Amino acid sequence: MDFSLTEEQRAWQMKARKFADEEIRPISLKREQIEDPKLTWDWEIIKKGSKLGFRTLAVPKEWGGHGADFVSQGLVMAELSRADCAIGKAFSQNWKWSHLISSVCSDDQKKRFLTKFLEDDTFVMGKGITEPNAGGDNRLPPPDFPKSGFRLHAERKGDEWILNGEKCFIANGGVGKLFFLDARTDPNVGIKSGTTMFMVPADTPGFRFGKQFNKSGWRFYMNAELIFENARVPDANRVGEVNGGVKKGTDDTTGGDLFGDLELAAHALGVCDNACDMAMKHVKTAMKGGKTLTNQQWVQLKLNRMFMLTEALRSFVMRIAWEHDAKVHSQNPGLAMNFSCDTIQDVTRLGVELMGGANGRMSAAADKLARDAVIWTHLGGDSVLRMRYARRIIAAHK
After folding, report:
1. What is the pLDDT of residue 252?
2. pLDDT digits (tens, 9 = 90+) for 118-140
3. How confident is the model at residue 397 (pLDDT cuts 50, 70, 90)?
4. What's the pLDDT score for residue 47?
5. Same structural domain for residues 361 and 390?
6. For the domain that residue 189 is a member of, what is the CATH number?
7. pLDDT digits over 315-362, tens only?
8. 3-state per-residue secondary structure call for the chain
9. Which CATH number belongs to the domain containing residue 62 in this structure?
10. Could you tell me if 95 and 135 lie in one domain?
């Protein structure tokens, strides 16, 4: 296998690294230490990144985007997250839904929404899946309980759909301008058979943002409630067939869970790179027992584990990105997501220990990485659910 990068892939990597070092890193700690979760977001960094193509990176060239391949996307995610994974995720969240629009939406929908997305540097997107009483069972609904899963209800009235219900912990909630929503259109069957997907702009009558969630990590990244009270959505905004929504969202290899797993693993890689960099710089100058920490065996062992796990994750991420580009179907994305969850927590914990946390002293930067890492424990469901999901993928491709 050829591991070398093309000129274009290398160019995107270097552009992301420069932007991360010069624009993201200087504001990272300051933004995440703001107490009010509504105020951690910074439109200026989004606008700056948009002008460089980081918001629209995944839009196909024929629709006016950059059409970057998945290897380039993986490289950019890792570089942005090396400075701040919450800010990096604020950009890549848009790629997921750019892929979905490109792969399953009608030409009319692409023209209406991609045009606005490309023209407006403050146009960010999200998807409403999780609800107060429905989380992991949306991704892996119990086969023996057909009414499990989300309850947002959509009823057709002429050329419109009337939506009632609530979503919570939704990415880019409070700041997004367009949301994909899975809603029940047949409440008498399971969500695999009774769900329809809709594209709902933030200015839709009857749709409003609710509570902005306060999180221990990923504080820049907005998560909020989406509340629907007789929200009126035109049928022209329906994605795919009636009662075909979940299949449209999750079976697609780019817009659904498979890209999401690559995305989160790539961001974890960036955090691990950052933790390794910080720990190495610290131990080269810190002294204990009359010699620098780099000359002490216990430090060398911890550093070795940090770098070993990080490089293993890098190989996993790049392989999955290559598989996406080559259209190779495998169980690797889900497995990599699980591996990234364990790896990011091990690496950031070791970083805290090396930078003084184990002795009661605190490094704000190392502490931030550890708090961000905790978020991985419940992304896309817990690790047990993700392994069960990967098992289904394995069985489907035997």
Report:
1. 44
2. 999 999 999 998 898 877 667 66
3. low
4. 98
5. yes
6. 2.40.110.10
7. 999 999 999 999 887 778 878 888 999 999 999 999 999 987 545 567
8. CCCCCCHHHHHHHHHHHHHHHHHHHHHHHHHHCCCCHHHCCCHHHHHHHHHCCCCCCCCCHHHCCCCCCHHHHHHHHHHHHHHCHHHHHHHHHHHHHHHHHHHHCCHHHHHHHHHHHHHCCCCCEEEECCECCECHHHHCCCCCCCCCCCCCEEEEECCEEEEEEEEEEEECCCCCCEEEEEEECCCCCCCCCCEEEEEEECCCCCEEEEEECCCCCCCCCCEEEEEEEEEEEEHHHEECCCCCHHHHHHCCCCCCHHHHHHHHHHHHHHHHHHHHHHHHHHHHHCEECCEEHHHCHHHHHHHHHHHHHHHHHHHHHHHHHHHHHHCCCCCHHHHHHHHHHHHHHHHHHHHHHHCCHHHCCCCHHHHHHHHHHHHHHHCCCCHHHHHHHHHHHHHHCC
9. 1.10.540.10
10. no
Q: How confident is the model at residue 250, as a pLDDT?
A: 45
What are the structure tokens assigned to 326, written together?
A: 């080559």
345-377 as b/e: b if 16+ CB within 10 A: bbbbbbbbbbbebeeeeebebbbbbbbbbebbe
pLDDT score of 388 more than 80: no
Kindly report, residue by residue over 229-269, the tens digit of the pLDDT. Answer: 999 999 999 999 999 866 544 444 444 567 888 999 999 99
Of 119, 144, 177, the last residue of a domain is: 119
CA distance 182 to 152: 8
56 versus 333: which is more confidently predicted?
A: 56
Domain range holding 161?
125-244
Q: How many domains does the chain have?
A: 3
CATH number of the domain encompassing residue 357:
1.20.140.10
Taking the chain, what is the end-to-end CA distance rounded to the nearest angstrom? Answer: 24
- Token pair recorded at residue 49: 């990144």
Report yes or no: 19 and 80 within 8 Å, Cβ to Cβ.
yes
- So what's the pLDDT on residue 102? 87
CA 16/CA 12 separation, integer angstroms: 6
Check if the beta carbon of residue 81 is closer than 8 Å to that of residue 270.
yes
State the residue for tokens 């119990």. Answer: 142
